[in-house]
Give the backbone structure.
Amino acid sequence: MPIHDQSYRRYAGQREAPGAAWLVIARTGIKAALSKRLFLWVMLGAWGQFFVRSVVFYLSANFPSMDILAPSVQTFRQFFEIQWIFVFFVTVYVGSGLVANDRRSNALQIYLSKPLTRVEYVAGKLGVLVFFLLGVTLLPALALLLVQIMFSASLSFVVENLFLLPAITLYALVQVLLAAFTILALSSLSNSARYAGILYAGMVLFSNAVFRVLQGFTSSTELAWLSFQANQDQVGDVIFRLPTRFESPWFMSALMILVVIGLSAWVLERRVRGVEVMT
Amino acid sequence: MNAPDDTTQPVASVERVTVRYGTQLALSDVAADFSTGAVGLLGPNGAGKSTLLKVLLGFVTPTSGRMQVLGLDVAERPLDIRARLGYMPESDGHIPDMNAVSFVAYCGQLAGLPESDAMQRAHEVLYYVGLGEARYRNIETYSTGMKQRIKLAQALVHDPDLLFLDEPTNGMDPKGRDEMLELVVDLATRKGVNLILSSHLLPDVESTCARVVVMHQGAIATQGSIAELKERRRQVFEIRIKGDRETFVQALHGIGVECHDAEDDLLRVFINDDQGPRDLFAVATDHEIQVRHLRPSVPTLEDVFAEAIGEE
């Protein structure tokens, strides 16, 4: 009698109903990213601002002479502006290979031969990015709000700015969804993660450069909607109920953000397929 | 989870399926039934075999026609079908930066197995396909033969009722090829897994499958039990001649006899029921050709294939 049967056996255990595979994809992608030491340093760095601002909140709450450092809505708006650089790095580091690597290794046909839809596949990949991007935007911002309440031992700041909690959530979602959809679409256009990363960086930096050059020529910021970054800034100002920084209408920026997300979804619909048909 | 008990019910069937890639006609009015057990999908490269499998998987939507797999409509219930189906693609495919056991377990989870069961099944299946000792190696370091085995493992991990094997022996050395074919036979005969084996290699299909569907230029050329298809052939003779081969072949065609080239300068000659070897000698004599060798033979799958695709 063999000690261990190494032959093929039929499986009579439990099976999940179709629909949960996106969670498997997201969980595996998150674990894979967390296994990389460089990425952990990036994530740790992304929380640096939170720690610095926590110290500032502590000082302003406990030392009257430091009252000038007391938090305001502007503080949270600035927090997101500074976090932008980490959003950029995390997007490129995690997102550029999410679909490109699967395309390079013909993994799409493996994925889509399992009981999962193309939407689930994209949702799983988006889940990886959204998890980390919320981890460098929404999570530290909410933690900062909590720290403010704890150090001041009062809810008065939150009560005076009731819109702040939804504003933080909404703006974080705008940033995260825009970055996640864009990089995923670019990743699906190539078999090379490096190329997808360069495309994304080029798109962000080039669109901003074009806007700044045109601003120089026209001495106006009416063309801010051309810039990937300026659109987020403009919409962010509106969400945080601050004066907008550019002359272009804010709804134009909001529209551009929706167009980019819509275009990305369309690209993903075209590129994420079990078989590539060349006609 | 098992295939339908009714073994007369096909595990997959296509009815008048047409597929176009742009202006290119990939499948033309294809109708075929794949019965239980092992069925070969045979045809030269470009015949439409892989396209047919991709249509059945739901990767490609046909221009017209209906398809059923395991009694379910492909257009209506693709996920339920794929939960019970394993696909071993022709081209290499794996998830980057994963070792074999993680990859196969991941595929199991994608197919709906709980994490612990998927991991246990991954180990078992990797042993079964002969990768037990290499299961912790990154797949990118695998040889071509090992990559074929890992593709089979990921197709098997969730215990499918039906397997699609697309050119499973591609790039394998003779020993590896034999082992792969043994696995296919074992799965089909002893493990109760139905399978469709797509190949352009006749010996692979003949050694593993009882039935065959022959495709040519995007259409079904013939289908049925291999034994029956062989029986349909007329009397076969192997003949070697000295003289003008072309003239001899033309002359045989003239009396309604079909010839195919075979190895070692031999011709395989298919004579009708009302004919005999005397007719062959008569043609040879009329054209001053010497018959150096004449031996009765048995019809092979190659003959069936050649006739089906109209090859001389």
Remarks:
- Chain B has eleven helices and 14 strands.
- Residues 1-6 of chain B have pLDDT under 50 and may be disordered.
- Chain B touches chain A through 50 residues (CB under 8 Å).
- The CA atoms of residues 101 and 123 of chain B lie 6 Å apart.
